[in-house]
Every structure is written in structure tokens, then in C-alpha cells.
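INTERNAL AUDIT FORM
Audit reference: QA-55
Scope: verify that the stored structure record matches its stored sequence.
Auditor: D.O.
Record contents follow.
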Amino acid sequence: MELDLNEVYDFLKKCGTYYLATIDGVSPRVRPFGTVGLFEGHLYIQSGKKKDIAKQIARNPKVELRAFMDGE
């Protein structure tokens, strides 16, 4: 089954807030996000390069997104 990033993008936009999980050393870190972009077939999440989350993703790019809409 192929993932349709347009559907993912639309869903994340409708949710408003979604959660991104990373690993900080041996501990999980989960943060709320609200920005998302779709450009040339790639999904983008915005964060500053100097933030801990960007450093964690650079060290271990295995991340998870969780999103849901209330009442749906």
C-alpha cells in the first residue's frame, strides 16, 4: 500500500495539532506541532536547526507522528 502524502497533509491540516515523537538519548520526547508543509512530494515539519528536536532527529531520524480529530 502506497502512502498518499496529499491525504496525510490534508489530515494533519484538519487536525490542527499533531504530536511528533523523538528519542533524546534513551528517553522518548513527544511535542505538539501545528505547522506542516507539502513541497515537491515531500512532507515538511518546521523547527529551528538549533532546537533540541532538530538535533535529536539528526542523531536518530526514526520519528513518529500521532494525530487525531475529536469527534471523528
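Auditor finding: record pair retrieved intact. The chain has one domain: 5-61.
Action required: none
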